Amino acid sequence: MAYTGPLILGVPWTVPPVLVRAGAELADALGVHLVCAYVDPASVLTEWEPYRTRTAASLDPVVNEEALYPASEVRASLTGILGPQGTAWSFRELHGDVASALARLADSTGACMLMVGNGRGGPLAKLGRALETGVADKLARLQGRPVVVVPEHTRARRTGNRASY
After folding, report:
1. Of 22, 151, 85, which is closest to residue 9 (Cα–Cα)?
2. Which partner from 39, 52, 108, 135 sits 20 to 30 angstroms from 120, CA to CA?
């Protein structure tokens, strides 16, 4: 099946400029719209309901003013990197499990592919990824679209007294 829709870019709360720029460059090269999606995992959707009867209703219908902060901060960071929203890019706030939410968005928009970062660097983050399947792995299992993983961190290699990247 050929997908001709937008490029979905999964954006974490701490927005890595390298990830956003890579998404914008790829979307531009493909001639597609870039949809930057922030998933708030603190707001849980009814993921366990049968697919055909599933709604996007939150289990916590009370509006939490503090929960609005991360999405507005992410949007402001994206605007600082990409400029104002318009024909080139747009922003979506999603809720629930990150991979499931991104896969649903890809399905509903007919996305051509998804792009995510490889997450935080460091030994604790590496251990966490080993214990829990990463978003990219889950996405690859949930749907058949290509999933592009962008390294967000470079690791310094020691060469003499200098660090090279």
Report:
1. 22
2. 108
